[in-house]
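Good day; I would like, with your permission, to put a structural problem before you. A protein sequence and the structure tokens that stand for its backbone fold form the material at issue. The record follows directly beneath this note:
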Amino acid sequence: MFLGRFHIVIFREKRGTPRKFQLPGWMLMLLGLFLALLLIGNVILLKDFAINGSLEKSLNLTEKSAHEQKSQLLNLSQKLFTLQKDVTRIRDFDSKLRVMINLEQENIMSVAPRGGPGQDMAKGYLPLYRQELLARKMNEFLRQLSVEARMEEVRQQEIIQRLRANRDVLEATPSIWPAGGWITSGFGWRVSPFTGRREFHKGLDIAGPSGTPIYAPSRGVVAFIERDPAYGLILNLTHGSGLVTRFAHLSRVNVKVGQIVQRGELMAYIGDSGRSTGPHLHYEVRISGIPVNPMRYILN
């Protein structure tokens, strides 16, 4: 029956002769099968489209979450890097205190993870494959920091005990800047601005306008005030235990020989006396007559 011939008649409205077509049954079966397959294909495509839409939405959410996590990792990394610098600064301060009170120095381990945060993080760039490595580094950093914090607490207690026992020594240690300004020449070897030859500079040159106040860096006694062809107007303070501070190229002084001054007390003013290239304070610290770097004692 289905393999026989089928007649299809097409009538025109009101006029015209009808048209008649004959189709074999197998062709109609193929046509029906084609339409069925087309319908099934459309259903499958619509289903895949819906699935792809869901997957795309899920992917967008995942990418957004990954971006937020990366931003949080970078932010946390920057905070840890800042914390690392703070810990280093505290250790340096600890070392200065130990020098001042003659407390034995310790070999202090570094809390910084090997390699540090790196340039990528400083630029805000963090490849996906490095996120897990960064997380591990930060965990290791936090572990080391926890150990370092406990060790620092023990060291600070030791310093506090020594400070209580050596309060007089600390009060007589030159631990603050004697004047405001900027350093134009540090302690150590330099080329002389007068001879052009290499010479050893015995102190710090702190430049500032003429008349800038100079304060006592610690408690001491005014040992002498005199004029020198090279140093100009000089003021020397003695602090005990062979520790002496010298202030040169002054314009005028505000104290007298034998006077006891306290840390922060006004003593003199910056000038341009003696052999000088401009208004500045030449500041020296000597122990038993030997010049040492004043930065070794300055805490602020």
